[in-house]
Amino acid sequence: MAKSTGREPAAKKPDDAAKPPVVREPAVPPAPAMRGAAKSVQGAALDGRPWHESHLAMVRRARRINRELAEVYPYAHPELDFENPFQLLVATVLSAQTTDLRVNQTTPALFAAYPTPEDLAAAPPEELEELIRPTGFFRAKARSLLGLSAALRDRFGGEVPGKLDDLVSLPGVGRKTAFVVLGNAFGVPGITVDTHFGRLVRRWKWTEETDPEKVEAAVAAIFPKKDWTMLSHRVIFHGRRICHSRKPACGACPIAPLCPSYGEGETDPEKARKLLKYEKGGFPGQRLKPPPDYPGLAAPEAGPR
Ligand code: SF4
Of all atoms in ligand 1, which is nearest to the CA of residue 242? Predict the structure, then answer.
């Protein structure tokens, strides 16, 4: 227990109860409350020395990484083009096992042909399969889209519901898809554990879990709820642009001093810079219609198939 300094605040007076509460970042929860989180962290530091840290230090480092990423990617955003919750739901279902770019190049024709759940539910399966074929696994995805559109029409009055339980009750909609829709179409905080998010948080030793739901729970315990959606965008942005699966560009990584996995990828700055993608490497982003503050280029309408 910390020693008393003799300068602790005086006990709360009855009058204080009327004052508005001071909002602070939540305190770091004790380790036992952090389901799935690593209890202590080991790795390698930038200078090659072994990386040991307490659970509390890991939480502080995680929050610092989030702050640094917010500076690197102030324009982080969902990389699927959408204009309403239904379009985002459909685009997210289509994004399984393919790039957001490929989805964005596919959905304009799809939404022009079938703009509402009622329209899509009535689509001839073969026509729908042909339209979404570029996204891969098109037969299974067509079945999901037909099923979820029919469910939206029959059970939710043609509207996308704004609750997790309702969303995951739709065919082909899991927690990841539901959180993407909740976070970006309804403003409900959510953590999106996709392949990038899982890989990066394990490299950063925020958790050792591999099961997406356990990763989600571990990360949820580290950050205040209000940060969840933007944290997800920033981590996914970093995974797509710098901390790649096979060749992370460690030598060009702005958070290298905070990373216990530094050295897993290319450490030579010159070579690492050549590995950067999207706006970092001077290439177009994923969206055909990126937000106004996006510093890179819009994606081309039709990519190589
Ligand atoms: S690129 Fe390298 S240094 Fe940066 S976060 Fe990934 S593993 Fe860590």
Answer: 1
Q: Ligand 1 site: residues with CB under 6 angstroms?
A: 203, 242-243, 248-250, 253, 255-256, 259, 261-262, 264-265
Query: Which domains can be identified in the chain, with CATH numbers?
Result: 44-74+190-281 (1.10.1670.10), 85-185 (1.10.340.30)
Mutate which of 261, 275, 276 for ligand 1? The one with the most ligand atoms within 8 Å of its CB, which is: 261
Residue with tokens 């969303």: 167
| Residue 77 structure tokens | 């955003």
Going from the Cα of 210 to the center of ligand 1, the distance in angstroms, rounded, reads 18
Residue 279 has pLDDT above 50, yes or no: yes
Number of CB atoms found within 10 A of residue 105's CB: 21
Alpha-carbon separation of residue 13 from 7, 18, 186 (angstroms):
17, 10, 40
The one-letter amino acid code at 267 reads: T
- DSSP per position, 91-159: HHHHTTTS-HHHHHHHHHHHHHH--SHHHHHTS-HHHHHHHHGGGS-HHHHHHHHHHHHHHHHHHSTTS
CA of 192 to the centre of ligand 1 (A): 20
Tokens 């929050």, located at residue: 63
Give the SS3 label for residue 2. Answer: coil
* Whole-structure pTM value: 0.84
At 227-264, the pLDDT tens digits run: 999 999 999 999 999 999 999 999 999 999 999 999 99
Report, as residue numbers or ranges, the catalytic residues. Answer: 176, 194
The tokens for 232 are: 């997800």
Q: How many angstroms does the Cα of residue 252 sit away from the middle of ligand 1?
A: 9
